[in-house]
Amino acid sequence: MKRISLRNGNAIPFISFFPNSHSASAISGKGKVGLNSKVEDAEEVMKHMVEKGVEPNIITYNAIMDGYYLCGQVDSARRIFDTVIDKGIEPDIFSHNILINGYCKKKKVDEAMQLFCEISQKGSKPDIVTYNTILKGLEVGRTGEAKQIYVEMLSAGTKPNIYTHTILLNGYFKCRLVEEAMSLFNMLERSREYTVIAFYSVVINGLCKNGKLNEARAVFKKLSFIGLLPDVRTYTVMINGFCLEGFFDDAKDILRKMKDSGCAPNNVTYNVILQGFLRCNKISEMTSFMKEMAGRGFSSDATTAEFLAKIVRENPSVLDMISELHLKNKN
Q1: Which tens digit of pLDDT belongs to each residue from 26-58?
Q2: Are 177 and 146 contacting, i.e. CB atoms less than 8 angstroms apart?
Q3: Pairing of strands 2-5, 11-14
Q4: 20 to 30 A Cα–Cα from 327, which one of 42, 66, 162, 303?
Q5: Helix (H, G, I), strand (E, B) or coil at 173
Q6: DSSP one-letter string for 79-135
Q7: pLDDT for the residue 17
Q8: pLDDT tens across 208-241, in order?
Q9: Secondary structure (DSSP) of 29-77
Q10: How far is Cα 122 from Cα 177, in angstroms, rounded to an integer?
């Protein structure tokens, strides 16, 4: 426990225990229960501060809001936000960002949009985090609004970053707006805005998932000419593209090139190939590939298990085939 001095000169115990927002996804269900208890304790401490005549500032309120956001309790975060306003304290951009992010994560995009609009109405200015958060919320199914926000962002003089453009590209690809995605990509590529492999991986992945394998392959081949080395994600999304179309020889060829280049495949790489075999009902190839996979210390993930369960439900004899092939491979 640490003590912090407050504005009237008194010191009051206050616990600093919140992880930052980047670590939110790492908190397990059990961890969230523990964190929730700590946030409630922190709110109690804050109430004692008020009873002693020490009014917490916006930084303190933001810390409590962020704690509730990390627990997935957006309604409790909103309650704190409303308390701040009732007390005549002006919420800052961090307060808005926490709550907008919370609403977006809960798929309450209308509430997030309402709060976003209030920022400008109250004379404040959204920052890059605000814009990226709301764009992420609008990513699927609301691309018209996302484009509007993007235009507004540029007009306000806020410079987009790679995350902004990645969100837009993902949104276009998910809504099958391939032409719009490629128009944005080509514009950014011409300006040499982003010469990082992650940016190209997003485009290759989007093209593959929209059945544009030749275009994806062209972008992939271009990498060596512009001095970029594919990373494990780039190779994996390209392999997945071939598997989606049933081109397993090409997928294996990319896998070989990947290994030869010194880029080690990971569990995701192997699982996209397994899923491809399952999708095309290539049980024999899948079983022998599983042997290689196991030899490298990898195993099937939840998505692969779901694929297999679905196929077994539709055709129970598949399970016998796998068992039979597995015994043959063992001998």
Answers
A1: 333 433 445 556 777 667 766 766 676 667 788
A2: no
A3: antiparallel
A4: 303
A5: helix
A6: HHHHHHHHTTPPP-HHHHHHHHHHHHHTT-HHHHHHHHHHHHHTT----HHHHHHHH
A7: 39
A8: 999 999 999 999 999 988 889 999 999 999 999 9
A9: HHHHHHHHHHHHHHHHHHHHHHHTT----HHHHHHHHHHHHHTT-HHHH
A10: 35
Higher pLDDT, 12 or 106: 106
Radius of gyration of the chain, Cα coordinates, nearest whole angstrom: 25
Of 137-141, 236-240, 301-305, 325-329, least confident by mean pLDDT is 325-329
How many Å apart are CA 243 and CA 279, to the nearest integer? 9
**DSSP class per residue in 223-284:** HHHTT----HHHHHHHHHHHHHTT-HHHHHHHHHHHHHTT----HHHHHHHHHHHHHTT-HH
- Residues in CB range of 136: below 8 A, 6 or more apart: 104, 167
Q: Distance of CA 194 to CAs 50, 147, 170, 179, Å?
A: 49, 20, 16, 20
Closest by CA position to 278, among listed 321, 225, 215: 321
Report residue 320 as tokens: 């016998």
- Tokens matching residue 295: 């030899």
Structure tokens at 233: 């994600």
Q: Which of 50-54, 205-209, 327-331 has the lowest mean pLDDT?
A: 327-331
The distance from CA 276 to its chain's CA centroid, rounded to whole angstroms, is 23
- Pick from 174, 65, 172, 42: nearest CA to 115: 65
Q: In this structure, which amino acid lies at residue 269? A: T
Task: Specify whether the CB–CB gap between 133 and 104 falls below 8 A.
Answer: yes
Q: What are the two backbone dihedrals, phi and then psi, of residue 13, each rounded to the nearest 5 degrees?
A: -60, 135
Q: Which residue has the tokens 């994600």?
A: 233
- Say which residues have a Cβ less than 8 Å from residue 282's Cβ, sequence separation at least 6: 248
Rounded Cα–Cα distance for residues 237 and 202 (Å): 9
Residue type, position 213, single letter: L
- Only one residue has tokens 């109405």, namely 121
List C-alpha distances in Å: 213 to 77, 219, 223, 228, 273. 44, 10, 16, 20, 16
